[in-house]
Amino acid sequence: MKKNKGYKKIDKILELPEEVYLDIPRITITGFDEIIIENFKGILEYEKFFVRIRSSIGLINISGYNLNLENMTNDDIKVKGKIESIELERTFDEGD
């Protein structure tokens, strides 16, 4: 993803993280028990063993056991449980 020159100026002035103004997901993994995804777009599938989350750049697939969605807001979500794997699927828009 190319960074717009206008964003570079804003970034330097305000010292904002790139994910904030480009709307890209930020994934924080804590051990095998917790994942926090910021800037997500929606939940496509939710089972106790599988969660599929849509983001601006693709799909985030989480597999495991006893998965629960917690602390959900419009912008971020926490997945807790026994996490076995995380898979990122890149999706392309027509303009890419």
Walkthrough of the structure:
The chain has helices at residues 5-14, 18-22, and strands at 26-30, 34-38, 40-46, 50-55, 58-70, 76-90. The mean pLDDT is 83. It has 2 helices and 6 strands; from the N terminus they run ααββββββ. By secondary structure, it is α+β, with helices and mostly antiparallel strands. It has a domain at 24-90: Sandwich (Immunoglobulin-like). The chain has a 6-stranded antiparallel β-sheet with strand order 1-2-6-5-4-3, with no helix packed on it.
Spell out the blueprint of helices and strands.
Layout: H1 5-14, H2 18-22, E1 26-30, E2 34-38, E3 40-46, E4 50-55, E5 58-70, E6 76-90
Antiparallel strand pairs: 1-2, 2-6, 3-4, 4-5, 5-6
Alpha-carbon distance between the two ends: 9 Å
Walk across the major sheet and give the strand order.
1-2-6-5-4-3
Low-confidence stretches: none
Helicity, as a percent range: 10-25%
Quickly name the level 1 CATH class of one domain.
Mainly Beta
Number of strands: 6
What's the pLDDT, averaged over the residues? 83
Judging by the overall fold, what is the CATH architecture of one domain? Sandwich
Give a quick rundown of the structure.
This protein is an alpha+beta fold and 96 residues long. The chain has helices at 5-14, 18-22; strands spanning 26-30, 34-38, 40-46, 50-55, 58-70, 76-90.
